């Protein structure tokens, strides 16, 4: 088995440099890092994880706090699949592994819709196992519980929750700007009765997308109509049910902005069930640009989020904290309107 000292001699660098390549790669020049990594691969060298954990006072594991209680459907949302791939890939390239955390709570002690049962237990688990840091995914009502992590002093990055603390930051998309662009696009097509199916109340992205919807109406000089605003939960069934409610109005909308693609697909199905044509009778726009958006008929116009980039940005923010004392500012990723077939002109 090749040791770090032998690898250093073969590469013509110090043992400390080899250690930095595998522990703090950002502190080593790209040329040196690539040289050491190439020789390490040729020799099938891998650093001793136990020794690394002792020297850094932490393991090469990053904890993922994500409540997947069976009563919460967030674990199966398609958006998260690509996000997790981006997160795992970025961490792996820097020698870290992703570990999903769970406490002994099985969900039975918690009422449906409640937040994490005991965030302190997760903090204690992180310290006990000397995890390098945490990535936090909100399952819908965890934002308040996440404040425990923010003030724990542990390096942590939240996804779509505005987290701040001595070693805490967050990554989100520009949800409001994306929603406003969608509404402006519908208004430019001549639509005047533009409805929205929002995400769940209290959810940060859902709130921002509603704000963007209202901003888009104002920018198009269109009135806000309470009867054209209904609340969903980001999932397909709620999109179907809420769309039926909108279509039953005395003056139904000619266009609908759904705050997720899942709900937008439900809205498409409800319009079809009512004998309406999309986009001939009613236009539909979603948010996320998940895979199904381009597969449904008609293909869905949607606001695209950078799903893999979301995970990569979260990993980058966490690695910045692990490589030094700096806590990076929040990251707000841009969105992009992807125009497909589910929108049509009213002119």
Automatic annotation (TrEMBL):
Key words, A-Z: DNA-binding, Transcription, Transcription regulation
Gene3D superfamilies with a match to the protein in the record: 3.40.50.2300, lambda repressor-like DNA-binding domains (1.10.260.40)
What Gene Ontology molecular function terms does this protein carry?
DNA-binding transcription factor activity; transcription cis-regulatory region binding
Question: Which InterPro entries does the entry link to?
Answer: HTH_LacI, LacI/GalR-like_sensor, Lambda_DNA-bd_dom_sf, Peripla_BP_I
What's the superkingdom here? Bacteria
Q: Which residues cross the membrane?
A: none
Q: Which Pfam families match?
A: LacI, Peripla_BP_3
| Ranges in coiled-coil conformation | none
Domain named HTH lacI-type: which ranges? 2-56
Q: What is this protein called?
A: LacI family transcriptional regulator
